[in-house]
Request: fold
Amino acid sequence: MSRSSVVIAKSRPAASSERAERRRVMMQTEAGDGALRAHAGYGHVVGVDIGASNLRVALADMNGTMLGKWSASTKETSSPAMVIEQIHTGVQSLLQQACVPWSSLLAVAAGAPGITDADAGVVVATSYLRGWKDVPLQSLLRAALRVPAAVENDVRMAAIGENWRGAARGVADFVFLAIGTGIAAGVFANGRLIHGADFAAGEIGYMHVPGTPEEAAQDGAPGSLESVIGGEGLRQQWLRCCSESGVAVSRGLSATEILERARAGDELAAGILHRSAKILAYAVYNVSLVLNCKLFVLGGGVGMSEPLRDCTRHFLEQFNEPVRPKLTISSLGQDAQLIGAIRLAMNKAESRIGVKVGG
Amino acid sequence: MTKERVLVGRPPLLRQTNAQILLRLLRETGPCSKADLVRASGLSAPSVTNVVAHLALAGLVEPIGEGDSTGGRPPDILRFRAERGCVGAVEIGPDFLRFLLADLDGREIGNATIPLERPSSAPPEVCDQISVAVRDLLRHQHHTEEQLLGLVVGVPAIVNVREGLVRALSALKGWTNVALGEMLAKDFKCPVTIENDTNLAAQGEYYRGAAKGEKDFVFITIGEGVGAGIFVNGSLYRGSQWTAGEIGYLRVPSVSREHPALHKYGKIEKLLGAPGILKSWQSDRQRSPTHPKVKCAADVFDLAAAGNAEAKRLLRQRANLLADIVLDLALVLNPSVILLGGEVGNHPRLLQEVEELLKGSEYPIVRVGLSALGTSAVLWGAIHTALDPALLRLLQPSDSLA
Reply:
């Protein structure tokens, strides 16, 4: 059921001044749905992806076409004030490169790796960035860049990206499953993101499925699901297997490399892949039952691994249940969050100028 | 992204929107004057006069005399005519049919319960029983059939709500892919809506039960079967094929640990539901005949509360299972509260046990509570589902003189 119809009751003068504003926005052709659209060059938006180790900033026009990307490390400089300063530097450099005046900037949106109150614009808590607790990111961005700002959790941001231009384009119900160091889900239901009562929906790292460790995790330690499927969990298993079997093979492998080895025929790695894939299959199956969701888009360093996807698919088929969710790898990859941030910034700009932007 | 269609506020639509606002005010605050409505709604005095005339024409408001004067002419006091019509709720249970009739303010007018004979409960018979019973109830309460403005039917099955299609109802014979909405529409002049019973129970708790004001919550029912009704952003979430909340098939560790063979059959529902609990108890009884006899699953939990060791063990086992389900739901949906209802779910001892188990979990605990409406949750959910569309129809120009 669509709840997107909006009734606007406005007085005549208000409506006419709005019409004038719309005329000022150089209109492009109507895109079939009768909605006015802003010209690609009417203004610009900035998308920001704040990661545990990297900060990425992108500039886009009102078609959502990326005009430039900028990145910096957040390893040493991760306090909110420093990150905001870096974003400012990044935006300035991107605008200069693209010969776009600051006045052309209409909005900014940023994704942050933690519990984020998207309504209040506050990053409530994150274990990935030091000193980030109840950070009013939205107002900090607005003050620094002098444009309207929006913030969102990074995994949900990636889900927005996939829904707009990625593997879930136009799909109203799907789950974006980010598997990197941790595991989290960005859920679209009826075409809208699910946030939950405390903006913690989709934090499935603690989920219990058959085969996950049953002792409660220590405070701050990864949850049961994370400890088996997360990148760090995979590496730990690999190290354990290596020392148990007395094989002195490459101990410094990344999670993705371990999974690739499994495909190449390495038995130790294959054991780890099987265990992780089976548990991932359980998690996917449970989430799909609760939400009645058919499409799962896998993203993140570990999630993008093809051997993991194939093996998980295999287990889902073996379950032989009526519910058989479809697994697909993110088509936007690393850029999913950045592209989601651009879309969210465009939405913000859209509500500011009163017409639709981009397709 | 969804495409948003922006409707321009043309006069009839505006009037309808404003009419809904004034009706809500009148329903919430009780009888008041036009001036009160102007103050409370923020609409202009001429607009309020215009809309009140529209509402009076639709038979939804009437003047009930003069109020106290504050200096000038005493104001006319208006009231909402809740008796203008009524809405009906039907619950199809495994062996019963329940009915509830309410006025347009959601106040009960009458109710009835009749038994359902399992063998003869094919869809046409049940439809006949429903239409006879609803007409009886209307007549009893001195209402005409024309006054019935909407009927909502709750079914213990997966329902395609848009098409009024019941997918599969395992408790009754011959109930696979039944176009129940279409069948009942032939018997009634008003719109008929079919909905899953657990979803209706969640609606009931949201409108007048333990989930009032909660925009994100889950209602878990454990009775003959197990299911969940999910509220997201203040409305029911049904999933892409109407099966959201089918938690009876979840795969959780405590099942695979204690009942490794069960996954072959697919359902933890068989364990957690009332029949599963009774079955476990009976098989225990065969081994040790000193076990007290029980009539229903809740009796086993009562025995546990009274200190029976075997019953306590069984309760602990079921609570483990339920705690895993609660945790899964909490992680995926982050609801503000998870309510337990149904014959088994509504038992306070089960809640207590689950709460204790969740305290040991590493995840921040979700609030778990009991259903406030108990066995009437489904019917009240149905009434509230019927109310808004019924009022809206009365406000539409073509129906306003009906």
User: Anything to note?
Assistant: Residues 212-371 of chain B form a domain with the Nucleotidyltransferase; domain 5 fold (CATH 3.30.420.40). Chain B touches chain A through 56 residues (CB under 8 Å). The radius of gyration of chain B is 24 Å. The first helix of chain B runs from residue 11 to 29.
